[in-house]
Specification:
Helices cover about 25% and strands about 25% of the residues. With about 525 residues, the chain is α+β, with helices and mostly antiparallel strands. Strands 5, 6, 7, 8, 9, 10, 11, 14, 15 and 20 form a ten-stranded mixed β-sheet that branches. A five-stranded mixed β-sheet has the order 23-25-26-27-24. A hairpin with a 5-residue loop joins strand 17 (about 360-365) and strand 18. Helix 8 runs parallel beside helix 13 (about 405-410).
Length: about 525
């Protein structure tokens, strides 16, 4: 793990000295010099926050709840949470504390049609999907699918079925489309000043040419497109991880001027969080009076990164509403069909997975290799590229197989062919991709087993029910049975690592492994 490089923080943030005053400015620089505490939130369908905090405490971590998000916590010491059982089994997700704020401000609800315009790397998108209860439509867009790869992995690990992934320039997405979204998040690309605490190689560089002006122009175009696509009465949250007022209040003011009273800034409610209001001016530039309703988050006030966010209400839509704003969109039932009866029938017959587990969901064959499960309410916009749903069944062989994501999502409901590991050593071997003989305890917990696919879980006194880990294969070897791990090689646990690790030494790394904003 590389060490943090020295940064001249006083030079990097000198422009804010007069703005904040000497005492506040120095406290901010000192906060930026300290590493970020690892922070996380708990998957609300898979575990109770108290269980996860207790499990982390048992291994030497000291989690404390974050007041602005239910189920969120910060740790007191560096940790490689990406290695742990709770992360791999999708019980928790690692995310910087300030970056959890935009979904809280947007407050997406079940059944709504929501857009995340700049979704990568996807932590906020995952937050919103779970806040929506897996219902409605969440369109996650970014420049390319290469940028969305981390979000795709998060989607599979957390079992998110109401997401549609699109790859297009955000300022051009559905550009001539009538207003259609209930809510839009614009977490815009920025100069990232607020991430100085966590970016090991972050450097301050003097501005060159018109780079900042070009960045601000991109931010304004993104925000303008978001506002155009939002239905009358709908909401947009604009956020960045920079402190630069030109990218924050400046971009906001430019967009407000274009809409001439059709959009208004709404007050933000973020209990337990200290925020400062938006600025009236900076560096000789005056901003909209409405910018005072924005929130500036400084690292020394809440022990977070630096952040900016503002909530906007569209009072008068930019374009006339269409009789059917989703004309030309595909419903879940319009997606390429999968062999529903065969796949769900196999899961019921072989694994005892009840058909009711797929209630409210549709199966679609997005490619030859896999069939995906998608929320039946999902709407797919008419964009150039899209991927809908959670890959659930491998379909290339003679018989289907559950994906790791599907085993983790629905494994608790499997009534047959379940292998329940009982020791941390067995769990580590499974996550390393190693085959292992089934212990007497695991065989007793599993019940009758036959050769073939199994759902692998871990029975721990720390959790009320066994925790699904993924898929495996039960093979006969001599007089006994062997569990062959089917955990994905790309995510395999390193030989020296453990899924039950305690705090890490500071120089060995932090929770950034597996983290996504």
């Amino acid at each position: 793990m590389r060490r943090r490089e020295a940064v001249d923080l006083e030079a990097a943030f000198a422009r804010y000295r007069d703005l904040l005053g000497e005492g506040e400015w120095r406290a901010m620089c000192e906060a930026f010099a300290r590493p970020l505490p690892p922070t996380l939130w708990v998957h609300p369908r898979r575990a109770a926050a108290e269980e996860v905090r207790a499990a982390l405490s048992a291994d030497g971590h000291a989690p404390r709840p974050l007041p602005w998000l239910a189920g969120a916590a910060a740790l007191s010491a560096p940790a490689r949470l990406g290695r742990r059982l709770e992360f791999r089994a999708g019980l928790l997700h690692t995310q910087e504390a300030a970056s959890m704020l935009p979904p809280v401000a947007l407050d997406p609800r079940p059944g709504e049609v929501v857009l995340d315009l700049c979704a990568a790397p996807g932590g906020k998108t995952a937050q919103m999907s779970l806040m929506m209860g897996g219902r409605g439509t969440l369109v996650a867009n970014d420049l390319s699918f290469a940028r969305l790869s981390a979000l795709r992995a998060t989607q599979e690990r957390l079992g998110l079925t109401n997401m549609v992934l699109c790859a297009q320039e955000g300022e051009r997405l559905l550009r001539d489309h009538p207003p259609c979204f209930d809510k839009v998040l614009v977490d815009a690309p920025c100069s990232c000043e607020g991430t100085a605490r966590k970016r090991g190689g972050w450097r301050f560089e003097e501005e060159r040419g018109d780079a900042r002006a070009a960045l601000r122009a991109t931010q304004e175009r993104l925000l303008l497109n978001a506002l155009r696509l939002t239905r009358e009465g709908g909401r947009v949250v604009y956020s960045t991880c920079t402190l630069d007022p030109r990218e924050n209040e400046g971009s906001l003011s430019g967009a407000l001027a274009r809409f001439e009273g059709a959009v208004e800034v709404e007050p933000l409610s973020l209990p337990g969080l200290r925020v400062e209001p938006g600025l009236p001016s900076f560096g000789g530039e005056r901003f909209s009076e409405a910018a005072a309703g924005a929130a500036r988050v400084y690292p020394h006030h809440n022990d977070t990164g630096g952040f900016f966010l503002v909530s906007l209400r569209v009072r008068r839509a930019a374009r006339a509403a269409a009789a059917d704003p989703y004309a030309g969109w595909r419903r879940a039932g319009d997606l390429p069909p999968a062999r529903d009866d065969e796949l769900i029938g196999w899961a019921a017959a072989h694994l005892g997975l009840p058909r009711e587990a797929f209630e409210g969901l549709r199966l679609t064959q997005g490619c030859k290799r896999a069939a995906s499960v998608v929320c039946a309410e999902v709407l797919v916009p008419p964009t150039r590229v899209e991927v809908a749903g959670l890959p659930a069944f491998h379909t290339r062989g003679r018989l289907p197989h559950l994906t790791t994501g599907a085993s983790v999502e629905w494994g608790r409901r499997a009534g047959r062919q379940g292998v329940c590991l009982t020791t941390p050593a067995e769990v580590d071997r499974y996550y390393r991709g190693e085959a292992q003989p089934l212990s007497a305890e695991a065989r007793d917990a599993a019940g009758p087993l036959r050769r073939g696919d199994v759902v692998v879980s871990f029975k721990s006194p720390r959790y009320a029910t066994p925790v699904p880990l993924g898929s495996g294969f039960c093979a006969e070897e001599g007089a006994g049975l062997t569990l062959v791990s089917l955990y994905p090689r790309a995510r395999a646990l390193a030989p020296h690592a453990s899924a039950f690790e305690g705090p890490a030494a500071e120089e060995e790394g932090t929770a950034e492994e597996g983290a996504a904003e």
